[in-house]
Design brief:
Blueprint (H helix, E strand, L loop, with lengths): L5 E6 L2 E6 L10 H14 L7 E6 L4 E3 L4 H4 L4 H19 L4 E6 L2 E3 L1 H7 L3 E5 L3 E3 L13 H9 L1 H10 L2 E3 H7 L4 E3 L4 H13 L3 H14 L4 H15 L3 H12 L9
Parallel strand pairs: 2-3, 3-5, 4-6, 5-7, 6-8, 7-10
Antiparallel strand pairs: 1-2, 8-9
Family: Belongs to the enoyl-CoA hydratase/isomerase family.
GO molecular function, one term: hydro-lyase activity
Organism: Chryseobacterium nakagawai
C-alpha cells in the first residue's frame, strides 16, 4: 500500500497504520481523509490481518486536528462536503470487521480526537492531550464528535468538552470513560502491540461478530439488541472456527483459528 500521507506495516496478523504528516502535526486535510477511506476499503479484504493499530508520526501528535488553513475561504457547501468526507472516512474505520486500536501518542485534538473515537479501543500516552476545540474557532466538531463522544461518555460530560473547547489529559479522559489505558510514552506502541497480538489469537470471525453486536446493538432497544446477539451467535455455528474453538477447549489445547 503506497500513500502520500499514510504509512502501513504488518507483522503477522497485526497491522500498524501511521498518519504521516509530522511537519503539520499529522493534521487532517483532504488528502489524508481520502487516503484513510481508500486504506479502509483495502484493509478489510487484506488476507491475514486481524487487528489494526492506528497512531501518529512523531512524538508530539497523534493527530492535532483538521488542517485549519485548508478550511480558510470554504463556502458553506464546501464545508459541509468536507465534513461528510471525514465522516465517511471515520465510518469506514469504525465499520472495519476487525478490532482497531488507537495508540494516541500526543495531541488528539478536534479531528484527531474524533478519529480516536472511531476506533474500538483507545490506549493513550501519559503525555497525550485530548480536546474538541472547534468552538474556539467559531465552529463545532463535525467529523463525528458530537455523535460519538456522548455515546462514549454521556451527554453531560460531552457537553463540557465540546462547549469549553478545553484540552484534557489522558488520565482525565480515562476517568471520563473513553480512554482504556494510560501508558508511559516509551511503552505505548509495545503495549498496543501486545493487546493486538492477544486479540489476534481469538477467533477473527467471532471478534467481528462481537464488534457488530456491540456497535449496532448499542443503538437498539435492548429487546432488539438481544435478538441480534442471538442471531449473530447462531451464525458463528456455521464456521469452522467454532468447531476448532470448542474442540480445543475439550481437548485442553490452544485453538488454531483460520477465520473460516
Amino acid at each position: 500500500m503506497n500513500f502520500e500521507t499514510l504509512l502501513y506495516e504488518q507483522q503477522g496478523p497485526v497491522g500498524t497504520l501511521t498518519i504521516n504528516r509530522p511537519q503539520a502535526l499529522n493534521a487532517l486535510n483532504e488528502v489524508v481523509l481520502k487516503e484513510l477511506k481508500i486504506f479502509s476499503d483495502q484493509i478489510k479484504t487484506t488476507p491475514g490481518i486481524r487487528v489494526l493499530i492506528i497512531t501518529g508520526s512523531g512524538e508530539k501528535a497523534f493527530v492535532a486536528g483538521a488542517d485549519i488553513k485548508a478550511m480558510q475561504g470554504m463556502t458553506p457547501q464546501e464545508a459541509e462536503a468536507f465534513s461528510i468526507m471525514a465522516q465517511t472516512a471515520f465510518n469506514a474505520i469504525e465499520e472495519l470487521p476487525m478490532a482497531v486500536i488507537a495508540a494516541v501518542n500526543g495531541f488528539a485534538l478536534g479531528g484527531g480526537c474524533e478519529l480516536a473515537l472511531s476506533c474500538d479501543i483507545i490506549l493513550a500516552s501519559e503525555k497525550a492531550k485530548f480536546g474538541l476545540p472547534e468552538v474556539t474557532l467559531g465552529l463545532l466538531p463535525c467529523f463525528g464528535g458530537t455523535q460519538r463522544l456522548p455515546r462514549a461518555i454521556g451527554l453531560y460530560k460531552a457537553r463540557e468538552m465540546v462547549f469549553s473547547g478545553e484540552f484534557y489529559s489522558a488520565a482525565a479522559c480515562k476517568e471520563f470513560g473513553f480512554v482504556n489505558r494510560v501508558i508511559a510514552p516509551e511503552e505505548l506502541l509495545n503495549e498496543a502491540q501486545k493487546l493486538a497480538e492477544t486479540i489476534a489469537l481469538r477467533g477473527p470471525i467471532a471478534v467481528a461478530k462481537a464488534k457488530q453486536s456491540l456497535n449496532t446493538g448499542f443503538e437498539l432497544h435492548i429487546a432488539d439488541g438481544l435478538k441480534q446477539e442471538a442471531a449473530l451467535f447462531g451464525e458463528l455455528f456455521t464456521t469452522q472456527d467454532h468447531n476448532e474453538g470448542i474442540g480445543a477447549f475439550i481437548e485442553k489445547r490452544n485453538p488454531d483459528f483460520t477465520g473460516k
